Amino acid sequence: MSKGYWIARVDVRDAERYKDYVAAAKPAFERYGARFLARGGAFKRLEGEARDRNVVIEFPSLEAAVDCYNSPEYQLAAAIRQEVASAEIVVVEGV
């Protein structure tokens, strides 16, 4: 079974409230076996538009990655994130 990956690009407007999102999302990430591979570290823009924060999260499967996003736990966290940040999130199947 191939792993699944979230690739998120985020511009945070309120760093203090974003901490609330991180705390609220933690139970969903733990439940679905998330492992952070990149989480807001330094980056270099090579092409296209960049965002301030880039995140790559590995899940045991594509299904787990999608289920995590759709879970009630994550949707509560997403509501906070959507108030304090702009983001694109895609789920990609690993090779």
SSE topology sketch:
Elements: E1 4-12, H1 15-31, E2 35-39, E3 53-59, H2 62-70, H3 72-84, E4 85-93
Antiparallel strand pairs: 1-3, 1-4, 2-3
What percent of residues adopt helix (DSSP H or I)?
40-55%
Architecture in CATH?
Answer: 2-Layer Sandwich
Give the quaternary arrangement of the chains: single chain
Q: How many domains, as an integer? A: 1
How many β strands by DSSP? 4
Sum up the structure in keywords:
Alpha-Beta Plaits; four-stranded antiparallel sheet; single chain; alpha+beta; 41% helix; 32% strand; globular; 95 residues
How would you portray this structure in words?
The protein is α+β, with helices and mostly antiparallel strands and 95 residues long. Helix 1 (15-31) packs antiparallel against helix 3 (72-84). The model has no long low-confidence stretch (mean pLDDT 97). The protein is 41% helix and 32% strand. It has a four-stranded antiparallel beta sheet. The radius of gyration is 13 Å and the shape is globular. The chain has a single domain (4-41, 51-93), classed as Alpha-Beta Plaits, CATH 3.30.70.100. The termini are close together. It has helices at 15-31, 62-70, 72-84, and strands spanning 4-12, 35-39, 53-59, 85-93.
